[in-house]
Design a protein that fits this description.
This is Acyl-CoA dehydrogenase family protein. About 50% of the residues lie in helices and about 15% in strands. It is an alpha+beta fold and about 400 residues long. Helix 7 runs antiparallel to helix 10.
Length: about 400
């Protein structure tokens, strides 16, 4: 597989490096030292710089002021953002916007996309279900009313940037119950089936929408989203096959890119520290036990990178294979969830006492790594899913 990036993709990565060059990962207090979230809002100044560099519209068509690039370009930018723990909703807003572009109504595309690319509108996604362990699409139900709008009920947990987003994309399962529809409306609308998943663009401030604060492992402000008969107009509901699956795979692959960037930042930090820290008159990096551990983590990162680009290429190109793209995404998740944990644990070990110092930047990286690991889910579960795919699609 040729993982050579195009000139446009490389240009996006270079622009990201320039924007993130001045971001200090230790600029936010440790979550263990503050009573609530580390901050009430994301980094708005950085968000403006990303918009000025056209990095918020990477995936949007030129007709909406975008660059028309793909998931690989987005992952390259996310990789750079995670190296400095950039506190911006880049993944969620970009993934939501490209989903609206691909599947949304003309009214929604016209109203939202250009403003998303300029950074004027922020979007997030509710993708963790009621508890974080159940499918997100089963946590909320959607039922049509007599006017053709959709009424949403349910709860989604751990919604990132919910208090700062203008819209939250919420997956919901359509349920029967069209009482009040006329015969003409029944005929004009697609039949409701319990296996149909819709995506609703839910305004943060809306009747029937309630947010309850949650604090993440990394000290970031999340929200439990409660929907109580929240009525969403048909133009703001995506009812298309593959929309939720595509959005979910892009979010997952982007999270793997964040894990890779964070791991690379941590390994660089560890190399610099072990190269300066001396013991018995020599840098500890020259000791075999230290070098072997660092080398093992480098191998982890290269495996995370290879599986990430394979997954990003599959969902970008739509290429077919023996296994569906979900198989490549599962492999990337296996490596990312375990790899990022091993990298930060080894880094803390090799830093000695500094690894346990909550005032040292490594503590923030460890907290973020744990949050990413929990977001991706356990590797064993992904291995089981991969096994099911292999059983359903025999390689022979």
């Amino acid at each position: 597989m040729d993982f050579t990036f195009t000139e446009e993709q490389q240009a996006a990565a270079e622009a990201a490096r320039a924007v993130f060059a001045g971001v200090a990962p230790d600029g936010v207090p440790s979550p263990s030292l503050v009573p609530g979230a580390v901050a009430d809002d994301f980094d708005r100044a950085l968000w403006t710089r990303l918009a000025d560099a056209d990095l918020l519209s990477l995936l949007l068509d030129p007709s909406y002021g975008g660059s028309g690039l793909d998931a690989i370009a987005l992952c390259l930018v996310l990789r750079e953002s995670a190296k400095v723990l950039a506190r911006v909703p880049l993944l969620e807003s970009s993934a939501a916007a490209v989903t609206v572009q691909a599947y949304g109504s003309e009214e929604a595309r016209t109203d939202l996309l250009t403003r998303v690319g300029r950074g004027e509108i922020v979007m997030s996604v509710a993708a963790h279900g009621r508890t974080g362990h159940d499918p997100a699409e089963l946590a909320v139900t959607a039922q049509r009313d007599a006017d053709g709008a959709w009424v949403l009920d349910g709860v989604q947990t751990a919604v990132p940037w919910a208090y700062n987003a203008d819209y939250i994309v919420v997956p919901a399962t359509a349920v029967a119950g069209d009482a009040g529809l006329t015969e003409t409306q029944h005929t004009a609308m697609a039949p409701v089936g319990t296996d149909r998943v819709l995506l609703a663009l839910v305004p943060r401030v809306h009747e029937g929408v309630v947010l309850a604060e949650q604090i993440s492992t990394a000290g970031e402000r999340l929200a439990e989203l409660r929907l109580d008969s929240a009525r969403i107009a048909a133009r703001d509901v995506i009812d298309a096959d593959g929309a939720w699956e595509g959005l979910r795979e892009l979010l997952t692959t982007g999270t793997c890119a964040l894990a890779l960037g964070l791991g690379e930042g941590v390994l660089t930090m560890t190399g610099e520290y072990t190269g300066k820290r001396e013991q018995f008159g020599h840098p500890i990096a020259s000791f075999q036990a230290v070098a072997v551990q660092a080398a093992d983590r480098y191998i982890d990162l290269r495996a995370m990178e290879a599986t990430l680009w394979q997954a990003a290429w599959r969902i970008s190109s739509g290429a077919t294979g023996v296994l569906p793209s979900a198989g490549d995404v599962a492999v990337a998740k296996i490596w990312a969830s375990e790899g990022v944990r091993r990298v930060v644990q080894t880094a803390q070990h090799l830093h000695g006492g500094f690894g346990a110092d909550v005032d040292y930047p490594l503590h923030r990286y460890h907290a973020w790594a744990k949050h990413l690991e929990l977001s991706l889910g356990p590797a064993a579960a992904h291995e089981e899913s991969l096994g099911d795919l292999l059983a359903a699609h025999p390689l022979g």
